[in-house]
């Protein structure tokens, strides 16, 4: 599959884009030769590329790495960002984006620093395990296990106030934060707020083409630069290929997916924490994110 994000911008997308972006893209990206998508290459470059569009991040009081239990008690890495003020602090738990198969503790370090300093909170960034090495929905299961540990042990381990927890993330990380809000409600873990950007919501494995999707934004932005239908399908295939091909193992893995493949199918949208969802106009995920927000409003928000 060609690296479609490096091809020239489709004419029908140009009216939606800022002229400054178009100029930068045409000068530095559009003429890059297309080639196969290599997951190892994407992983090696993802965090660096992700940081290009951000301003300089402020200095935190302290930053350190640690570990918490993930799914089945397996330890997963976290990075903790402390403000300069004395604790105990509120805590914001961040789940990075990356299509379930990319991202690490460097991906959103700039975002975590901004939040820690400007909101005066501890930020704990969670490095959940990735597909295809681990079967979907490992990112959700690891992240919720991390949240449970932060809630139950965080007062002593991280000097946080467990009554003041917020969650956040972008793209796949936004999906994780939204789903963890359902799981936290059911587990009796109080959350103050969930704030996510451009979350993935729907299960696009149900659609063979962008025109099959019920979301106008998926059709309008089928050929958008950086994130488009081709790239979304590539990541989605990676997610489902992480499951065993057949037999009892696949059956148990499919059962573990539950409604997580499509957050719109969550069984209960009531009594969820206050939630803020940011969408982007030139994003194929825009309309499904807004549809999820409407489900929250119907549930009482």
Task: Determine and state the CATH class.
Answer: Alpha Beta
Q: Give the number of helices.
A: 9
Read across the widest sheet, the strand sequence of neighbours is 1-2-4-3-5-6-7
List the domain count as a whole number.
1
Rg, Cα atoms, Å: 19 Å
CATH superfamily: Alpha/Beta hydrolase fold, catalytic domain
Q: Which whole number gives the mean pLDDT? A: 93
* CATH 2nd-level architecture: 3-Layer(aba) Sandwich
Kindly state the percentage of residues in helix: 25-40%
Strand content: 15-25%
CATH topology: Rossmann fold
Pfam families: Abhydrolase_3
GO molecular function, one term: hydrolase activity
Protein name: Alpha/beta hydrolase fold-3 domain-containing protein
InterPro entries: AB_hydrolase_3, AB_hydrolase_fold, Carboxylest/Gibb_receptor
Keywords:
alpha/beta, Rossmann fold, 9 helices, 7 strands, 16% strand, globular, AB_hydrolase_3
């Amino acid at each position: 599959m060609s690296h479609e994000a490096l091809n020239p911008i489709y004419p029908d997308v140009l009216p939606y884009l800022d002229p400054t972006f178009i100029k930068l893209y045409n000068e530095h990206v559009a003429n890059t030769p297309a080639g196969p998508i290599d997951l190892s290459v994407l992983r090696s470059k993802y965090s660096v590329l992700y940081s290009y569009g951000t301003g300089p991040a402020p200095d935190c009081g302290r930053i350190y790495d640690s570990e918490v239990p993930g799914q089945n008690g397996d330890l997963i890495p976290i990075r903790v960002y402390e403000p300069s003020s004395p604790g105990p602090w509120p805590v914001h738990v961040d789940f990075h984006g990356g299509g379930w198969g990319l991202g690490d503790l460097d991906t959103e370090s700039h975002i975590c620093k901004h939040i820690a300093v400007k909101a005066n909170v501890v930020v704990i960034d969670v490095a959940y395990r990735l597909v295809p090495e681990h079967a979907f929905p490992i990112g959700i299961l690891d992240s919720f296990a991390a949240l449970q540990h932060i809630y139950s042990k965080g007062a002593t381990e991280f000097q946080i106030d467990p009554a003041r927890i917020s969650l956040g993330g972008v793209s796949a990380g936004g999906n994780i934060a939204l789903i963890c809000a359902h799981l936290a409600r059911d587990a009796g873990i109080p959350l103050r707020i969930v704030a996510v950007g451009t979350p993935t919501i729907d299960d696009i494995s149900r659609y063979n083409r962008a025109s099959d999707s019920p979301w106008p934004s998926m059709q309008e932005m089928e050929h958008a630069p950086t994130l488009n239908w081709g790239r979304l399908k590539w990541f989605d295939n990676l997610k489902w290929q992480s499951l065993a091909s057949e037999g009892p193992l696949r059956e148990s893995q499919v059962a573990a997916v539950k409604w997580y493949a499509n957050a719109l199918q969550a069984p209960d949208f009531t009594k969820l924490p206050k939630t803020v969802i940011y969408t982007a106009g030139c994003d194929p995920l825009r309309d499904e994110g807004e549809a999820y927000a409407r489900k929250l409003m119907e549930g009482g928000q």
